[in-house]
From TrEMBL:
Keywords: Membrane, Transmembrane, Transmembrane helix. This is Envelope stress response membrane protein PspB. Residues 61-85 are annotated as: Disordered. The chain crosses the membrane at residues 6-27. The gene is pspB. InterPro entries: Phageshock_PspB (IPR009554). GO terms for biological process: phage shock; regulation of DNA-templated transcription.
């Protein structure tokens, strides 16, 4: 057999069989995973709590380091998102 013929056969098989098989394989894996794992949900909740605690600490530090006189009390900050309440 001619080496060019073998290269052509391998190219055609790769293009029309292997590549679509890989694409469909990863599409089915993607569809199976349509929600977070319980461990991921727990980790996300822990990160959310940590972020909220850090935000409270930063707001406290801002209040402590505020250099405005007492007669000009700044307005309270609005929540940044609807999740803060």
């Amino acid at each position: 057999m001619d080496p060019e013929f073998i290269v052509a056969i391998v190219a055609v098989v790769s293009l029309f069989i292997v590549f679509p098989a890989m694409v469909f394989h990863y599409i089915t894996l993607w569809r199976k995973q349509n929600s977070l794992e319980p461990d991921d949900e727990r980790m996300l909740e822990d990160l959310w709590r940590s972020a909220k605690a850090m935000e409270r600490r930063i707001e406290t530090l801002e209040k402590l380091t505020d250099t405005q006189p007492d007669d000009e009390i700044p307005a309270p900050r609005r929540p940044r998102s609807s999740f803060d309440q």
